Amino acid sequence: MSAEPSRFTPRDPDFETRGRASYARQTFMSTLGAELGRVEPGEVEIVMPVAPHICQQHGFVHAGAISAIVDTACGFAAMTLMAKGAGVLTTEFKINLMSPGRGERLIAVGRVIRPGAKLMVTLGECFAEAGGERKLIAMMTATMMVMDTLGIVD
Q1: Arch. (CATH architecture) of 15-148
Q2: What are the domain boundaries of the chain?
Q3: Whether 48 contacts 32, CB under 8 Å
Q4: How much is the pLDDT for 7?
């Protein structure tokens, strides 16, 4: 991912606080041991240590765990650009698993490509990190729906 400043302006000045509070309610992410890292307008990072409880029978991180953290990074990246009171739901995604998930930790980065009023298109990448070096292991394209959170806590 590039280190260039975000080209997006958030609609909610408290996007990071709101996003972190919402993420804290993600019980599945805590089950995986995944933590929310960097949160910027249109871009979010999630870090997950590699641990036995998220691995498949060959010792690699299960594709479901990889998909979950990349999908979540994409969704929260979209949420950073939504108005206060709006929530996010994934409507579709496609993931390419390019290399086994192994190393010390996985880093999922979600980035908004097109912020729409009702649908947001995102790109997600997952890197395996070992010895301070990163390797791209998965890529995702995902579409996120902006939803009114009537009765739903965001």
Answers
A1: Roll (3.10)
A2: 15-148
A3: yes
A4: 84
